[in-house]
Structure formats: structure tokens, C-alpha cells
User: Fold this.
Amino acid sequence: MNKRTIVALMCAIATFICYIDRVNISVAIIPMTEEFGWSGTTKGFVLSSFFIGYMAAMLPTGWLANKFGGRVLMGVALAGWSLFTVLTPIAAGISLTALIVTRILMGVGESASFPAVYNLLARWFPKPERSRAAAMNLTGIPLGTIFALSTSGWLVTHYGWHSVFYAFGALGLAFSLVWFWLVRARPSAHPHITEEERALLAPLEADIGTTPATVPWKYLFSHSAVWALVVNHFCANWTLYLMLSWLPSYFRDVQHMSIEGSGLFSILPWVSQFVVGNASAHVADNMIARGWRVTHVRKIMQCTGLGGGAVFLLFASQAATPGIALFTMCGALGIGSLCWAGFASNHLDIAPRHADVLWSISNTAGTLPGIIGVMATGILLDLTGGYTATFIVAAAINVGGAIVWLIWGTGERIVD
Assistant:
């Protein structure tokens, strides 16, 4: 296994832990709601509080990644968010306010994850490999979600809802030590890199640089390609956060499944995302290697992902049986994962030297669905008594994002 693969794998594991710590509450929230007597609106506020801290710290952590490198930032962040995961059940026992504050601080810790990863990917992977590198990291999302959903229900059933936070938080604390041991910030800093890899990556490191660069904030915020990326991060994440936070509750409340069953039944859509997302990344990199313009590849992947996802979301709004509901969820997340080779790789195309900062900019907007969308779902559930309206809204947002990307998206580098 070469060192670039090790870096990508370690990033994927960090993202995996990031998401098991983020997703476990979507299962644990069911018995927590029953124990504390929360309404749908309160439940939505608890779920969304994480994203308040996540969004508020996104730009600062992007700057920190650019200044100090992804290795240091990720190691510190891993330890931080894992600690607040462990503290979640303790805070819940104190008061709702304490729980909200703890989840906000956990969000602050996790906000550093992707800027740190993109800082490393920009320095370790040349252009024809970036879709696959980004996709390998993003596999931590469905795999972490699958693991959390498949084990959280079992842990809740056998050991109580507190156990999921203790177990997963301890795992993250242990991995933070492994991270510092194995990962290096850049190729030239790695003590065991081969001469072949050094020769491959030397031009990239010379292009990206090994010292912090002045971030052209004004230029980035004024460029149409950046705003297309910002809008599409928001649109793609609307469906992602809807599924992350509410899918187990949907199968429990609408399809009348048990807590353990709702967690297990929620797994297949994430399997679909894992398979299709990685396949699309390989296809995209092969297209680029064969001479396709990066802009065309990114537009094909992004628009197909958002448009196809919208179709399945509309079907989901009319799903009458658990089987049909499962099929539509698999379709929405599966075809939607073509966006991995669309907007999610685009930061490395248009501003590789500042990909960490650019991710923090776009993901600030990408976090809004975790606050607005998750809370709006709780409010809509109280108002309408069902999920139909939430799926229709998500489909409309997908279509809007595809239109913006088709007009203003680009794969050309916009800044040195």
C-alpha cells in the first residue's frame, strides 16, 4: 500500500468516526424523546444544535487548516469532538440546555474534519486521482452511517441509549492517537515515501507550496464559480442531512418498525450511496484521464446526481409500503452520490492551494440544511403529520442546485 493510499484511508477512517458520532443520535433520539417527553419541534432542535456549532466554526477551521496543516488540526479535532460525544448523555441528564451546549461544542470539533482532509488531499493527489481520493474520504459518510445505524439500535436495546455515546466517543479518542502516528502533512515530510512517489508528487508540492499562503478571501467570495459551489453544497447537503437525522424516525413513525429494525432498515440507502459514489468517482477520473474537460465531467456528475435524486425524492413522497420506501431512499442517496464526482471534488479543481478554505466557505452554506432543514422537518411533521412535504421541498432544492451548477459551475482553476 503506497503512502498516498494510506493518507486517503486514514482520512476516510476519520470521516467514518466523524459520522458514527454524528449519526448515533438519530437512533438514540427515539428513546431519548420518550424518556424526556420532547415534542417533534424540541426533537428537531436537539438534532440541529450540533450544526449550529459546526457552521459557526467552519470558516475559522478552514483558516486553521491552511495555516497549520491538516494533520495537526484533524488530530486535535478528533480528540475534541470525541470527548463531547462521551459527555452527551451526562449533559442530557443535567438539562436540555446543557445537552444543547454539548452538542454545539461537538459540532465545533467536527467542523475541522473536512478542511483538514482537503488540505491533505490537495498536497497528496494529482488531478487525475482527485475524484477517487475525495470519494474514498466521502465513503466514511455512508460507512459510518451504516455502522452507527446497525449498532446503535442494538446498543440501545441491550445497554440503553447512553451506551452509544460512550462507546463511539471512546473509539474516536483512541483513533486520534493513531492519526498523529501515521499521517504526515505533506509528501516531503513523510519519512518512508518511495522515490517513485516523491517524483510523482514533487511537481504538485511545488505548485501547491509547503508554507501557508495568503488567502484571497475577497477574490474567492466574488467569483461566480465559488458561489455555484456554495449553492450546490447547500442543495446536495439538504437531502443528506434530511436522511441522516430523520430516516430512522421515518421508518419507525411511518412504516411502523421497531427501534432496532428502523436502524437496520435505514442501512441499505447508505450502501447504495457507497457503491454508486465510488463507481462514479472512478468513471469521472477515467474520463479526465482520457482527455475530457474537467468542467464537463463535473457538470455531468453534479446535474445527474441532483436531478436523479429529485425524481426519487418525489417517488418517496408517495411511498405506501416499507419496500417501496426503501427503494426510493436507495435511489435518492445512490444517484445523488454522483455529486461526489461533482461539487465535492471541485474544490481541488478550482483552488487546490486553498481547497481547505474553499471547503470551509462552501460547507458553511452546506451546514445550513443541518439547522434549517432538520428543524423544518420537525415543524412540518407537527403541522402536517407526515413526511410528504419534506420530500417535495428537498426535490425542489435539488433541481434549483442543478440549474445553478449547469450555468456557473466550472472545473478550471480560478486562483493560484
